[in-house]
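<instruction>
Derive structure tokens from the sequence
<data>
Labelled lines for chain and fold
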Amino acid sequence: MMETSQKLSMWDADPGWLDNTFIISLLPLLTSLKNVSIHGPHLLYVKWPTLQPAVQIAFHNLFAQPHVVSLTLHRVFDIDIAAFSQYHHLEELTLRNVRLTEGRPSQSGACFPLQTTFQLDHPTGSLRSLSITDSVVFLAEALFVCTASSGATFNFRNLTQLDLRLQEFDKDFPSTCASLIKACGPSLETYKTSFRRGPLNHASVSSALQLRRFPHLASFSLVVDNSSHVGLNGCEIIRSILVPELDLLPGSGSQSFINSIHLNINTLDIGKFGVTDKKDLYGFCSEEVWSRLDEILARPEFPFLRELSILFDVCMEELRRQDLVDVKELVLARMPNLQEKGIVTVSTRETTLGMY
């Protein structure tokens, strides 16, 4: 059974359970694994350096096996980045709350020797899907290691799917994002990004919404808050960053490959205890930004566009059912071109702050 298992998922992986000789003897037996997931304890985390070296080596040896094509790490802190530089066989990488708390690591910090003399004849890498949730510093260091090391074989150049879910930003985020986009932009086809609970600033958001850098982009999804506490709120992101960016697509004399755009606006205001402010909601849905979006996306430069979906997450505490009908009609009234083409849909979803 061990030899034929293809998936290993460790949920609520307590460090005390991971750090034992059983793990050391078990992992080498899993010779057919394709998917590996490690999820730290709920509300806690696995601090990687506290595991005994033999356990770290056993996990890194497992991650390095060519048959492992999907890796998920969740609530894992201070794992050795240098080893990732040679995981060129990975096709899917998911990092959720994977953090560095001890400063920038160095290649010499690896718990086993890197193959510094090994290089692929064509180091294109296999990674197709990357999902990042609040792991921006780790991503920055991974980019640094993979570009600075002559022995690195892992890279982002063939990435087709990118999912960035962000709640925290440091001063280096724009440069990190620029490096990632430079690496994967030419190949990217599906891009999802989420800006939640801020505080947000124009430079950080703009750096992640450079859609003109993705010449083969087919599907784009954006999730934003419209809360008063976040600095740059959802309305401002769409009005001052997204719409001008779409206006620049697809470039002079060419056509955009985009076929679907999904906008999800969370209207629950944390500053007002998670209630949807009725006045703010009506004001946002009456914005001229929707007319501008309609004019841009109806252009001949977007011949493949088949879907624009706009979803408002709402709390019903201060709203009536008729309000949901009204706000949808307000948006649709400003988008006659896309309505005529049967492309645009506007919907609402009842939710609570606890769901976020």
